[in-house]
Amino acid sequence: MLKRRVSGAVEASKPASKRARLHHKAQDVPHNHNTSELTVGQKVHPRLFRLSARYDWDALWYAESHAFAAHLAQDMMLRRLVGEKMSKVPMGPMAVTRTCKGCYVHLRCPRVSQVQGRLAGEAEAAREIVRLRFGDGIDVVLDDFRRPELSAHIIARSVVDQVERRAHIKRAIRRAASAAARHGARGVKVMCSGRLNGAEIARTEWHMEGTLPLHSIGAEVDYAAACAKTVYGTVGVKVWVHAASQYSGSVHGATEVRHAPAL
């Protein structure tokens, strides 16, 4: 039965007995007391859920209380500018580190040593934009990213490219999930939502292979979300990849990323 909450009370158009029962049930629904809206869909980011156990922070820096807000705003601006410039380059999650010598934006790209010449122009353009916006002291560094076939960000980027080229949605997500499973993933799930294939009514299509233990901290579950811009609207893409189950005692970030020579 449909329940609506209007200014904290149930509609007065219902009979008295039904109003009492619905009002009693509405008290059990999670509610945000600051507004009149119901709270729905509490979800935890899989990478955030496994911080310090399977993954390291994507922002490694410290600031005093008076400078923290400025550093955080600059961090978000750096990610947005570099992400827009390198949107067509397949890469993992960006990392920002700050030391006494300056700030560094690390771009985790697969097989940097093989495609370094092709990425040199893109990285130099991003570096120039950062210098014009923030001045000297901030550099863009390319890092080698191991096992790109099991990276949720790279898989999501490939699905977005296929969707923008008007490929069939169900075929694209099945192909992406099967490719990750062939490269050793224990489980993978790919989901697309929106006006798929130009349909009038938005819907959700997803495909899953293997196991995906979202509640196990020891399981290495990578997650990424991306947005495909098409002529009939935006299509959201979400990817979950289960790479390993047993906890090895090592944290991603120090073991999975190797620094490439400076450009």
The CATH homologous superfamily of the largest domain is termed: K homology (KH) domain
Classify the beta-strand content into a percent band: 25-35%
Terminal-residue CA separation: 63 Å
Class inferred from helices and paired strands: alpha+beta
CATH topology of the largest domain: GMP Synthetase, Chain A, domain 3
Keywords: Ribonucleoprotein, Ribosomal protein
Subunit structure: Part of the 30S ribosomal subunit. Forms a tight complex with proteins S10 and S14.
Region (Disordered): 1-38
Domain Small ribosomal subunit protein uS3 C-terminal: 161-241
Keywords summarizing the entry:
263 residues; alpha+beta; GMP Synthetase, Chain A, domain 3; Ribosomal protein S3 C-terminal domain; 3 domains; 5-stranded mixed β-sheet; disordered C terminus; Ribosomal_uS3_C; ribonucleoprotein
What topology emerges from the helices and strands here?
Blueprint: H1 16-26, H2 46-49, E1 59-60, H3 65-85, E2 95-99, E3 102-110, H4 112-134, E4 138-145, H5 152-164, H6 169-182, E5 187-194, E6 203-210, E7 220-230, E8 233-244, E9 257-259
Parallel strand pairs: 1-2, 3-4
Antiparallel strand pairs: 2-3, 4-9, 5-6, 5-8, 7-8
Helix pairs in contact: 3-4, 5-6
Subunit structure: Part of the 30S ribosomal subunit. Forms a tight complex with proteins S10 and S14.
Domain Small ribosomal subunit protein uS3 C-terminal: 161-241
Family: Belongs to the universal ribosomal protein uS3 family.
Polypeptide structure, described:
There is one protein chain. With 263 residues, the chain is α+β, with helices and mostly antiparallel strands. It folds into 3 domains: 1-37, no CATH class; 47-145, GMP Synthetase, Chain A, domain 3, CATH 3.30.300.20; 156-244, 2-Layer Sandwich (Ribosomal protein S3 C-terminal domain). Helices cover 33% and strands 25% of the residues. It is built from 6 helices and 9 strands, in the order ααβαββαβααβββββ. It has helices spanning 16-26, 46-49, 65-85, 112-134, 152-164, 169-182; strands at residues 59-60, 95-99, 102-110, 138-145, 187-194, 203-210, 220-230, 233-244, 257-259. It has a 5-stranded mixed beta sheet. The protein has a 4-stranded antiparallel beta sheet with strand order 6-5-8-7, covered by helices on one side. β7 and β8 form a beta hairpin. α3 (65-85) packs across α4 (112-134) and α5 (152-164) packs antiparallel against α6 (169-182). The radius of gyration is 23 Å and the shape is globular. The protein starts with 15 loop residues before the first helix and ends with a strand. Keywords: Ribonucleoprotein, Ribosomal protein. This is Small ribosomal subunit protein uS3. Belongs to the universal ribosomal protein uS3 family. GO terms for molecular function: mRNA binding; structural constituent of ribosome. Part of the 30S ribosomal subunit. Forms a tight complex with proteins S10 and S14.
